[in-house]
Amino acid sequence: MAKLIYSMITSLDGCTEATDGDLGWGPEDEEVHSFVGDLFRPVATFLYGRRMYETMLFWETAHTQPDLPPYIRQYADDWRAAEKIVYSTTLASASSAKTRIERTFDPDAVRRLKKESDHDLSIDGPNLAAQAIKAGLVDEYHLFTTTTVVGGGTPFFPPGIRLELDLLDHRSFASGVTYTRYRTR
User: What distance in Å separates the CA atoms of residue 3 and residue 110, rounded to the nearest whole number?
Assistant: First the structure.
């Protein structure tokens, strides 16, 4: 059975988005970006909320930009190769290949997808992930924590949730970003 992985960049105080929208962690970090690319290359399906999908659409055409660093080109190629499911009541159609729109998040459909998939799945976006967490669907949590404290915003974990997790892996990067990987008990 495939794992459902929830991963996001977070501030030191646990926000995926600051109240003003900016986590303030600076420019792209090649070391972190390459690590993320290697980590998620085996993921065959990404589950997105509309806002996260619209953010990720950059990767659909990134490969057409001149002088693209190899690690960015590789990530763009991997993203385009993956299936994408976007949960949205307002999005009329997909703007990327290998993408389908679902109007509602159906936990039973995601359970079937996990059971039938031979590759792991990723769920991205804190609002969509909150639904999966509440349904007991998330198997692993991957956090990339910046060195910024933003004082409020959208939390990585939904309020009112208690989870018992086991630390599986951790890594520190030269930029100060830390990676932690947890498994649900």
Answer: 11
